[in-house]
Amino acid sequence: MAVRDILILPDKRLRQKSETVKAIDKSVRKLVDDMFETMYAAPGIGLAAIQIGVPQRVVTMDLAKKDEPKQPQVFINPEVVWTSPETAVNEEGCLSIPEYYEEVTRPKAVRVKYLDLDGKPHEVDAADLLATCLQHEIDHINGVLFIDHISKLKRDMVMKKFKKAAKHGGPSKALAEDKEPSHHIG
Ligand SMILES: [Zn+2]
User: What confidence score (pLDDT) does residue 179 get?
Assistant: First the structure.
């Protein structure tokens, strides 16, 4: 296992649409191991493979609170098959857009189908944080970022800030430390 570098805005790879996983082989298992290690180290509660530069439809997640045992979850080829008409507003953050949080409106509940690491199909009815996190990560594998759901004015400001930071060698790591993991959705 290895902690991998997380791509940071405005890295163009974050806009790439990820490919469907055709076979869950050794390389996918290794990818999942690295994703968990990277996600826990960040720390974050969710991660899409493209965030470490791998354009495959793989998502890892762990919504356990600090004092709870780990609850690692893997979603291969996840797809939203139903969304509730009710919406919810939640503050989101992203490991690829560090130190930026904004309220995002999304469907309050979703049904998602996916494969587990054994290739077995599942469907999950998700609400609350799981629904938000799944939608955030499935956006990632489609090349969509949470800032696409906020106003253009705010998005332009964030883009400007991160483009400027990239020119000066990237956002300071020190800034990313000492934060509540729940803030960084993934
Ligand atoms: Zn994210």
Answer: 46
Q: Which residues of 4-41 are buried (b: 16+ CB within 10 A; e: fewer)?
A: bebbbbbbeebebebeebeebeeebeebbebbbebbbe
Using a pLDDT cut of 90, give the percent of the chain over it: 89
Q: What is the pLDDT of residue 14?
A: 98
Q: Report how far residue 123's alpha carbon sits from residue 98's, in angstroms, rounded to the nearest whole number.
A: 31
Residue 31, both tokens: 């990818």
- Beta strand 46-48 with 97-107 is unpaired
Our answer to whether residue 19 is catalytic in this structure is no
Catalytic residue among 68, 79, 123, 137: 137
CA distance 78 to 121: 10
